[in-house]
Each structure stands twice: as structure tokens, then as C-alpha cells.
Write a structure and sequence with these properties.
Blueprint: E1 2-8, H1 12-23, E2 29-32, E3 48-50, E4 59-60, H2 61-75, E5 78-80, E6 84-88, E7 93-98, E8 102-113, E9 117-119, H3 122-125, E10 135-137, H4 138-148, E11 155-159, H5 163-174, E12 178-183, H6 193-200, E13 207-208, E14 211-218, E15 222-229, E16 242-245, E17 248-251, E18 255-257, H7 260-264, E19 289-291, H8 302-320, E20 331-335, E21 339-343, E22 346-347, E23 353-359, E24 363-370, E25 373-380, E26 386-390, H9 392-396, E27 403-409
Parallel strand pairs: 1-2, 1-8, 2-5, 8-19, 10-17, 11-12, 11-17, 12-13, 20-27
Antiparallel strand pairs: 3-4, 6-7, 7-8, 9-18, 14-15, 15-16, 20-22, 21-23, 23-26, 24-25, 24-27
Length: about 425
Amino acid sequence: MTEDVVVIGGGAAGLAAAIRAKEAGAERVVVLDRNSELGGILPQCIHTGFGLHFFKENLTGPEYISRFIDSARTLGVEFKLDTMVLRLKPEREIVAANSRDGLFMMKAKSAVLAMGCRERTRGALGIPGTRPAGIFTAGTAQRLMDVEGFMPGKRVVVLGSGDVGLIMARRFAVEGAKVEAVIEMLPYAGGLPRNVVQCLEDFGIPLLLSHTVTAVHGAERVSGVTVAKVDEKGDPTGGTERTIPCDTLILSVGLIPENELSEGAGIMLDPATGGPVVDERMETSVQGIFACGNVVHVHDLVDHVTETGVKAGQSATRFALGQLQPLRNRIRLRPGPGVRYVVPQIIGGDEPVTVYLRVKNPVRNAMIRAGNIAVPVRAARPAETVTVKLTEKMIGGLKREPELAISLEESGRID
């Protein structure tokens, strides 16, 4: 039997896509997820800050995702948990395996990729030193504490000031651990400003900017790390090294979209995001395969993840029902000066569209320019996704060109 829509991934993006697919008229919607429970990373995110945009409420991760799980079950979405998808073919044939069905294949009229992202590990960083116990990624430490009920350490150094790292610094402090410092290679924090205030400043946790960890010490367990200042190129500066005693090193050093399945299906990837190239309907370069959430690019807010899931679910259903027409005017968006990446990378030039982008440096009172369109931005930081809503009026007045650069015109830098 051919399914209408198969969604790979049961987190916020995947569930939003499945729910919208059902609401839009898809009869058979199946979600495949390798975990034993739905929700992706959100069940272990017990802090608040979720849903401020989508629900206009301040929710915890479990509260946020439970609303989608309940809706999906009510609508009759089918779930296959503990299921590993091994291969996705361009013709939307899916090869998967679980303990109940064994190795099996599914055929889908349309497929939605919502596999999320994974954390970079110590191996990706190449930090010299010994290999003792006590080194965790931030997400792993979060699960150990908030789901499994284990305390990973008592004297902690956090490398990387991304949002998860900042939140975990606070989490350790709340549980009584001594957080010696958060170390950041960049000259500014990598997470949202509100998290710097609420997670570090409110708890008196030092933030060492333009620093990095150059060595790990310890035999069976971490006993300390050496940190040093870095220059403008990110190279350690000699003579600035010092050792910080600790028993735990938490790594919050970036996230990578999970795109092995995308590569196997021959989907074009964007080197800047690490995720698929998508158009304004979230369709990838392979017809009938859509992508959403952190598998496309790493978002800072789950609300944006959900929005892309809704769009992908709507588009996938229209494709499955034969209602999705080709884009009439394909305009390729590319990052211009001051912009690191732009999503979607392709728009049709006919309908209003929300463009997500990230800037290269912190700025204030800037202007985002797309051809003859200029949108003011009060403040922008690399850690925050900038959303630019191109209205019908803007699209109508857009100069028709096959390629359009999205650029940042700076009028002031944030120190």
C-alpha cells in the first residue's frame, strides 16, 4: 500500500508536518522515528521559553511538544517508533527496520524529512590531551540530568556559549554544581542575549570570550582543562594559557543537520547550512520530497521549526493529491555581504514568503536588502535567526531576476 505522506522524524517539525498533512486532507500519514518516544529533544528540555511565538504562551519543552503529540493522535496519524530508516530513494521508497516488522519497505506519494540535527563531539574538535571520563555533549548531559536523573559532575567547565550550553550551565548551578566558566572562542556569546542574562549573569557564572580549551587533563576522570586566549583567526595565543580544575567538560560547540538520508536520495545540499536546498514550499531538489526544521538549518527557536513543519506538511499533501503546481518564476536567493545563509534558497516570486537568514556579525540599526526591496532590522546577532516577511506588495514590486542576493547593510555594530 502506498502512503499519502511519510514523515521521517517525530520531533516538533515532523509532528507539525504530520498534523498539517492530516488537516489538509491526506488520509494515510505515517511518522517514522528511531526513538522509543515521540517529541525529539523536547521531552528533556524542562526549562521554559517554548511557544512564545506559536502559542503566545511560555511553555516548557514537554508542555510544548505534548500539544502536538495529542493532536497527532487525535487526528489519526500512524506512528512507527523504535524504527530506523536506512535508506530513502528518490522515487520515495523508504527502507526501514524495527524489532516488530523487521526489515521493511514503504512507498510514499510524498515524503517529509524532519530528522533534526546532532551535536558536534570532541572528536570533531581535535582537542589535545587524555581521554578520561567526564566529557559530555550538552544534549547528553541534559538527558542524563532531566530524564535519567543522574548528575554528570560537580565541578564543571562549559565549552561553547550556544543556547544549550548556557542553559546547561544554569542547570548544573541549580543542582549545586560549581560552574567554573563558560568558554567561548568568538568575541561575543553564541546564544540568545536573554539566555546570557538568565543563565550566566543571574548565577554569577564567568563567560570567557575569545578563549578556547587547548588541552584536557586527567586519567580515569577529567581533572582539569587548559584554556587560552585566541587571536582574530581563532588560534591560541602563547603565554595566555591557564589550567582550570574541574571534573566535567560540557561541549556546546555546534549542531549539524542530520542529512545522510538526504544525500542518499540525491538531494542537493547547501554547504552554508548543511541542509537541503529548499524552495518556498519546503520542497527539495528531488520532486515530492520535502524538508523542514533543523534538518534544513539549525533554528534558534522551536516556534520557527514548527512553522516550517506546517509549511512542509501542507505542501507534501498538495503534492500527494496532485494539487502542487510547479513554481512559475524561480528566483534563486543567495547570501550577499554580511549574510551567512538564506532559507529558502528558491522562491517563486508570486506569493508572500518568509525568509530565514543569519548574519555574520552582530549589528544594530541595519537594513536587509533584496534587490530593490529594503527591510529595516533593529538588531541582529549570528545566534539569532532573522525573519524577513516578504509581503504580496513587496513580491509584486520585486525586480525579476533569476538570482537575487540578500545582503546586510550595516549602520552600527554591537560591541
